[in-house]
Amino acid sequence: MDEKLTIQDIARLAGVSKSSVSRVLNNYPAISQELRERVMRVVREYNFVPNVTARGLAGGKTRLVGVLTPPLTWPAIPEMLRGVAEYIERTSYEMVLYSINFENPTHTDVVDRILSLRMVSGLLAILPCDLTPHLLKHFERGLPMVMINDQEPPEHFPCPWVGVDNRTGGYQATRHLLDLGYRRIAHVMGPKRYYCAQERFEGYCQALREVGLEPDPELLLQGEFDPASGRRCARELFARERTRWPEAIFVANDQMAYGFLEVAEEQGIQIPQDVALVGFDDNLVSSHVRPPLTTVRQPFSQMGAKAIELLLKMVDPDHVLPRARAAEDEGHTEAGARMTPATGPLAAAADGSGHQLRVHETSAPYRLDGAIHIQLDTSLVVRASSVPA
Amino acid sequence: MDEKLTIQDIARLAGVSKSSVSRVLNNYPAISQELRERVMRVVREYNFVPNVTARGLAGGKTRLVGVLTPPLTWPAIPEMLRGVAEYIERTSYEMVLYSINFENPTHTDVVDRILSLRMVSGLLAILPCDLTPHLLKHFERGLPMVMINDQEPPEHFPCPWVGVDNRTGGYQATRHLLDLGYRRIAHVMGPKRYYCAQERFEGYCQALREVGLEPDPELLLQGEFDPASGRRCARELFARERTRWPEAIFVANDQMAYGFLEVAEEQGIQIPQDVALVGFDDNLVSSHVRPPLTTVRQPFSQMGAKAIELLLKMVDPDHVLPRARAAEDEGHTEAGARMTPATGPLAAAADGSGHQLRVHETSAPYRLDGAIHIQLDTSLVVRASSVPA
DNA sequence: TTGTACGCGTTATCAG
DNA sequence: CTGATAACGCGTACAA
């Protein structure tokens, strides 16, 4: 097919100057229709694609964006990246993946090295954990950046940001349990240093107060967002005399909920008959555990897509490709269909218990202290861990 | 810190020519020790990193390698990429991720676009499915490429290749069940068009014959490597009269095994008491399903690492960084237990439940018809789905 | 062993 | 609106 044509060759073939070819290729506004067509004909015929490297050198824009992630084996990461990849595929940009290992103490060096290469024209930082302060320095020094980071309070956070409404999420989970008639509802919090953990807790409190209940300190446990701490909390709770058990538990993330399921099975505790359980996240496996987990769904894939869209808008306001909008409607319904398979929500909808699957919607982006923030909605996914089949 | 120093600036600061700086930076052999030190001092002081883009343009090597993957939500992909990322992090290369959606009918175009950009100096194609023929064209046209692809028979496969010994894997699974005393052992095959499915089946047959048994056609089912087909096969099997049930089942991958677990739970069939179950892959979730799944482990992360190592050796034989080897021995014992056979066998530890975990070893790379092939070993992971706790 | 000069393929800046 | 021409930052023959 193509060997190694340059813009020069195309220019010669089309009988124009290479600057003209360049202009056509970059959608320069003031070009005669005739020239544009003449060039495009040759471009298409030879399947010409300009050399990215040269483009980067000359124009300063690399058409590469970096994506910094925790190990891909973390629960939500692959889904977020799917959203990123699907969006990026429809642009002329490419994604350079930096999957960093937080175990490595030198990870700030890694970040510096990445950025000093000046290869990426922007950075999407996904759950950067303790790297946040370091990254913010680069941001303040001018690197276009977007974060997906639920550890920091959005207020006064200087960097563009995509996240979900954790408060409402916590409310949804708790409200669901209240609607089922439960009153003694425990909450297993995430680490207090994580803002999302605080928000989910606040949502929990708000739902309780709405029905005239006050959060009971005895029913509040402290977890670490991992299965081990879930197991620990479960053992602690189930070691109490039966009368002091809660009727239901809202666990601040699915990982800890898995720990609860394990302990429950060990000890022969029936879920939801003995205790109802609701998690948060809707990880891919949550519909496959036993019993399938009722949980608050975060639209991870959509978060990734929104975040990369925002980033590209920052580095290149008109990066949008022709077929972008059409694909957005279609592709998302397909992605959305994944939300309502026969296994999970369908059963809930079918059992006539009146629980609905509220499909998330995109809130409009808003500015807080000058930085754009996009907050997406969570949605409750009802499965068998809260309502018996 | 650094603003935008060029090699020219460094040269001036060090009082040498820019070619000298370039040579030092590229480990050119014939350089005086003094010059090298003089340059490196300045380089370090200013934290200089050469511009990748310019490097790519001038030298023709981009220091970027492409990694083509199915959606990251596929079971083994994140683990493979973890291996890739951990290796790449220790080199001066970066990974450009192309996560493609096989649903998209135009994916060959996507591939062509990627490659015509001439941005990546090599491509690692992970489980490219029906894209293989198309990719091979690019390979034969000179693009350095490595595949992780278990659908094709290694013989006569022209492209460097990393995979596992599926035959021995199938043997291990079956042998394990035989050792437990089972004789009526069913096998749920993967699609016949996948070479790995055939190999696993052959391993199954070999183990049976070793103890004087002949594979029973009645106990051979055909699946499609997805949970749905697993459920289908399970229903088919368990619908037979009880005397015609197998005592144990070797399912050709974990995904299908999940389907078996679901159906078993639906129908109140006890695993392993009523039927023992062994899968293949050891996906991340397989230790968390109920009961935890006995399975043949593929060293996905190591496969990724080996594959990218091979690819980098092809595009740049001495890409190894100074700290690479040290890191491999030391800091990497944790992650590196997967990489170095040295730490392998010793780690034959119990996973808490007293079941042995045989750690796989790396076979030496060998050539087949001129193309390098690396075949890694699988290992049996015994959990509760085959031996009651 | 080191320095000089040119080229890599594009974009941007000028004239025209 | 279009065409020369100068950067962009680095690698590398070639010369010294």
Structure description:
- 2 copies of one chain form a homodimer.
- The first copy, chain A, is an alpha/beta fold and 389 residues long.
- Chain A folds into 3 domains: 7-50, Orthogonal Bundle (434 Repressor (Amino-terminal Domain)), CATH 1.10.260; 64-165 and 299-375, Response regulator (Rossmann fold), CATH 3.40.50.2300; 166-297, Rossmann fold, CATH 3.40.50.2300.
- Chain A contains 14 helices and 13 strands.
- Chain A has helices at 7-14, 18-25, 33-46, 52-59, 77-88, 107-116, 132-140, 166-179, 195-210, 227-238, 254-266, 300-315, 324-337, 345-350; strands at residues 64-69, 94-99, 123-126, 145-148, 161-164, 185-189, 220-222, 248-251, 276-281, 294-297, 366-368, 371-376, 379-381.
- In chain A, the strands form 2 sheets. Chain A has a 7-stranded mixed sheet, with helices on one face. The first copy, chain A, has a 6-stranded mixed sheet with strand order 7-6-8-9-10-13, with helices on both faces.
- In chain A, helix 11 links the parallel strand 8 (248-251) and strand 9.
- The first copy, chain A, is elongated and about 90 Å long.
- The interface between A and B is large, with 51 and 52 residues.
- Strand 2 (94-99) of chain A pairs antiparallel with strand 2 (94-99) of chain B.
- Chain A binds a DNA duplex (16 and 16 nucleotides) through residues 6-8, 16-20, 22-23, 25-26, 30-32, 35, 50-51, 53-61.
